[in-house]
Amino acid sequence: MQKRSSPDTEETPRKRGRPVQMDQETREGIVLDAVAELLGTCRLEDVSMAAIARKSGMSKRTLYTIFASREELLGATFARIGQTIFRPLEPGDEALSLEDRLDKLLTVNHMPQFEQAPLELLRAVVAEAPIYPGVAMQFDAEGRGALIRYLAAEIAQAAGAGEIVLDGMSSKDAAELLADMVMGNALHHLLTPLEPKPCDLSEEKRLRRKRAVSIFLNGLRPRG
């Protein structure tokens, strides 16, 4: 006599049919999330297509249908990271003073997965630059490059409104000067990895940013 299953133990029949298909944008987002997470925990050289495929739950074959190469994939990841770290001003920010507008543009929006290893990531990108120049160029263009573009546009607008006088200097040159004043020299930190760093630099960075913007604008204010 066949034993009947009770309602509590009876298995739910598995639905048949094709698995749900993700669109290209969704798959791309999953892959980029996986790369960003790997970059926060692994060395750049260990972020291989195989590792990315495992992390994203996709096959390498599928990965290559989304991104043609590791270089293209890392470039897209750095582009998205850059868009998160540095952002343009939002609607309504035009009501802020020029000093506050520049300060807001120069404020780094931190990503938690990179809190502990931003210099290590930069060091790895520099090391791979001769082999993967496209990755390094994308990293620069979407990171510091994006910041320079935002600052240059704001400085040009301020100069046109008579808030500052560039005196023959281009808005891009002025933007690079201000960014260097605020960000400091990364080369020193790259060359001194064993030098102890303070645990919390947020207040120190905020004060440096404020002072740099003030000194920068004092040098460009109209005289007389």
Structural description of this entry:
This is HTH tetR-type domain-containing protein. Keywords: DNA-binding. Residues 48-67 bind DNA. There is one protein chain. The protein is mainly α and 224 residues long. The protein folds into 2 domains: 24-78, Arc Repressor Mutant, subunit A; 88-220, Tetracycline Repressor, domain 2 (Orthogonal Bundle). The protein is 59% helix and 0% strand. The protein has 11 helices and no strands. Helix 5 crosses helix 11 (202-220) and helix 8 (144-160) packs across helix 9 (171-183).
Question: How are the SSEs ordered, and which strands pair?
Answer:
Elements lengths: L23 H16 L9 H8 L3 H7 L3 H16 L12 H9 L11 H11 L4 H10 L1 H17 L10 H13 L2 H6 L10 H19 L4
Helix pairs in contact: 1-2, 1-4, 4-7, 5-8, 5-11, 7-8, 8-9, 9-11
What key phrases describe this protein's structure?
224 residues, mainly alpha, Arc Repressor Mutant, subunit A, Tetracycline Repressor, domain 2, 11 helices, disordered N terminus
Order of helices and strands: HHHHHHHHHHH
Total of DSSP H or I helical runs spanning 4+ residues = 11
Unreliable segments of 5+ consecutive residues: 1-15
The overall pLDDT, averaged over residues, is: 82
Distance between the termini: 106 Å
Oligomer: single chain
* 3D shape: elongated
What CATH first level of the largest domain would be assigned? Answer: Mainly Alpha
- CATH fold annotation of the largest domain: Tetracycline Repressor, domain 2
Number of domains: 2
* CATH architect. name of the largest domain: Orthogonal Bundle
Keywords: DNA-binding
GO molecular function: DNA-binding transcription factor activity; transcription cis-regulatory region binding
Protein name: HTH tetR-type domain-containing protein
InterPro entries: Homeodomain-like_sf, HTH-type_TetR-like_transc_reg, HTH_TetR, Tet_transcr_reg_TetR-rel_C_sf, TetR_C_Proteobacteria
